[in-house]
TrEMBL record, chain A:
Compartmental location: Cell membrane
Entry-linked PROSITE patterns: ABC_TM1
Source organism of the structure: Bradyrhizobium betae
InterPro entries to which the protein is assigned, alphabetical: MetI-like (IPR000515), MetI-like_sf (IPR035906)
Chief place where the protein resides: membrane
Protein name: ABC transporter permease
Domain ABC transmembrane type-1: 84-275
């Protein structure tokens, strides 16, 4: 009770005695615990020795004889370093090209006046609704026509333009005072020099917000790489994990599945725990990616 | 008053065009104005070009491709394509697997949107005050948002495992009969929905947290002094303030219900007996498993048409949010 009082000490004095908000808070605490149970099980099951047998597999109390065998098995069965490398290449490749396209397009919308501006603006806006994942079938045909079937470049290409990123950069660039640009203009700076040396350095928070959204969403992409990639050595983490799970499920090796899952999500979870505030604020701006 | 300010806006947008309009010869002038305008616009077009190329290929080109592919069909996988008109569309509409997937998808959309939005609102209301405890709880509720759907599915495969799985191990004792969560065609879709709610509630919570910051504290206090209890304040102050947030979150939740099908692939492959088949998974099956590009395109086209309806509804909301051109 004391703890709850402490949590409400900044509430308006008169409402502090109300009971409903506190019940809601308690319910949320219970649900947050429920929300964490799958992660808890993943950790406990990863460290549980195979000798505990299948009937103890669901036990959330950690085993007294923890072992790293499951992690070793997962590491040996699944080709996780290779999958991780492929995912890293895909996410980095997409992000670098996106930085280029969204900076230029964002600047055009923020600072330039041109014929057909509304029309082009709506062409971008529509992309937010026509999410690429719906267009997997035609996009696969286009990728195949380019000879990019079963290549990492084929996985990346449909995401090179980003309406969300363009709008984010437009917003960031509009907030930069034009006086700065005028000064550079007088000094004879070209358009690209002004973007490179004035707009980009001053918009770093928006770039990092976009990077967080872009990397997490492509790190987690599944159906599209599943369709484009055929060779086992080009699978990203998600496709690799699904194949690994299907294999290990057959032998009821749940400890190994937990270990494999842990390896796939650990990089994201660690990065999140370090940059928690930044992640949360980026996701608020994301809405539709 | 209003018309004057409107004029001002226009002349700001096209500074050179308006004053000249009265003087030059009409025909020449139109051409000249057009080429001047194009010349002035050229830098912007060059900057937009890289983005437009990819939009043209993978958004608008892809839509064109769907329209064309939906009109053609092969008799056998190796036979040449021939024009079949609307046959693919009618074949898809007559396919019980597709209509079943549409019904499943509607149940899935409503059954995931309502609980996850309701929970998200509860979480946001409970955790709107910033302190160490509520930040930790927010982080806990947000964790599922970050991980791939495939990873969530791998964990829930065990949770729903009959007899020895987490769910049966802990709550199974309370039930008279243990259902086979993913193997029973009456239950499997709801089991799939649980994962989606678990994964998305924390995401929608963020939008409600942001929306709640717009609720003025002094109005809440004044309402309290006037004798409004927590429910009255929620109903008459908080809810109206959150209306735009609700609209926005509903659009995202609907989009997610159509586009998130990774767990169907990993956990059930649409089964048992198509009870968890969703539209996007049906499209995937037609294209990849049956090599039927015609039917897959026809189904894509129908889904796009349905989403366009939603777009029309939400377009204004989104345009306002992005601030207009």
């Amino acid at each position: 009770m004391k703890l709850i009082d402490a949590l409400w000490k900044d509430a308006p004095l008169a409402t502090r005695r109300e009971i409903t908000p506190k019940l809601g808070f308690l319910l949320t605490v219970l649900l947050a615990i429920v929300w964490l149970i799958p992660f808890l099980w993943m950790g406990v099951a990863t460290l549980r020795p195979a000798s505990d047998g299948i009937n103890l597999m669901a036990e959330l109390m950690p085993s007294l004889k923890p072992t790293l065998d499951n992690i070793r098995d997962a590491w040996e069965i699944g080709d996780f370093p290779r999958y991780a490398l492929n995912t890293t290449i895909i996410c980095t490749g997409i992000l670098l090209v996106q930085f280029f396209t969204i900076t230029l397009a964002g600047f055009a919308f923020a600072r330039l006046d041109f014929a057909g501006k509304s029309l082009i603006f709506y062409l971008f806006l529509m992309q937010l609704m026509l999410v690429p994942v719906l267009l997997i079938v035609p996009n696969l045909r286009i990728i195949a026509q380019f000879g990019l079937y079963d290549t990492l470049a084929g996985v990346m290409m449909p995401f090179f333009a980003s309406a969300f990123g363009t709008f984010l950069m437009r917003q960031a660039f509009e907030a930069i005072p034009t006086e700065l640009e005028d000064a550079a203009l007088i000094d004879g700076a070209s358009l690209f020099q002004r973007i490179r040396h004035i707009y980009v350095p001053l918009s770093m928070p928006s770039f990092s917000a976009f990077a967080i959204i872009s990397v997490t969403s492509h790190w987690n992409d599944f159906l599209w790489p599943l369709m484009v990639i055929n060779s086992p050595d080009k699978r990203p983490l998600t496709v690799g994990l699904s194949v690994f799970t299907a294999t290990a499920e057959g032998t009821q090796a749940w400890g190994t599945i937990a270990a494999g899952t842990l390896m796939v999500i650990a990089p994201l979870l660690i990065t999140f725990l370090i940059f928690q505030k930044r992640f949360i604020s980026s996701f608020v701006t994301s809405g539709i990616k | 008053m209003r018309s004057i300010s409107r004029r001002d806006e226009m002349s700001l947008a096209e500074p050179a065009a308006l004053p000249v309009a009265a003087s030059a010869a009409p025909r020449l002038h139109v051409l000249k104005r057009f080429s001047d305008r194009f010349k002035a616009s050229l830098p912007a077009y060059l900057l937009l070009l890289p983005s437009l190329v990819f939009l043209a290929l993978f958004t608008y080109g892809a839509i064109g491709r769907v329209f064309i592919d939906a009109l053609y069909q092969r008799a056998t996988p190796k036979a040449p394509v021939r024009f079949v008109g609307l046959d693919n569309i009618s074949a898809v509409l007559a396919d019980p697997a597709f209509t079943g997937a549409v019904v499943n998808n509607l149940v899935y959309a409503v059954g995931t949107a309502i609980p996850s939005i309701g929970l998200a609102l509860l979480f946001a209301l409970a955790l709107s005050r910033t302190n160490a405890v509520s930040s930790a709880l927010r982080a806990a509720l947000f964790l599922p948002v970050l991980i791939p759907m495939v990873a969530a599915s791998a964990l829930f495969l065990f949770i729903f495992l009959p007899n020895v799985g987490l769910l049966d191990h802990y709550i199974g004792r309370l039930l008279p009969v243990l259902p086979n969560w993913l193997g029973d065609s009456d239950i499997a879709l709801y089991a799939i929905m649980v994962i989606t709610v678990w994964k998305n509630a924390g995401y929608y919570m963020l939008f409600f947290l942001a929306g709640l910051q717009a609720v003025p504290e002094d109005v809440m206090e004044a309402a309290h002094l006037d004798g409004a209890g927590p429910f009255m304040r929620f109903r008459h102050i908080i809810l109206p303030e959150l209306k735009p947030t609700f609209l926005f979150v509903i659009v995202i939740a609907t989009l997610n219900a159509v586009t998130q099908v990774d767990h169907v692939f990993v956990m059930t492959k649409g089964g048992p007996s198509n009870s968890t088949n969703l539209v996007l998974f049906y499209i995937y099956q037609q294209a990849v498993e049956h090599y039927d590009i015609g039917k897959a395109s026809a189904a894509t086209l129908l889904t796009l048409a349905a989403l366009m309806g939603l777009t029309a509804l939400s377009f204004r909301t989104m345009a306002n949010r992005e601030g207009g051109p």
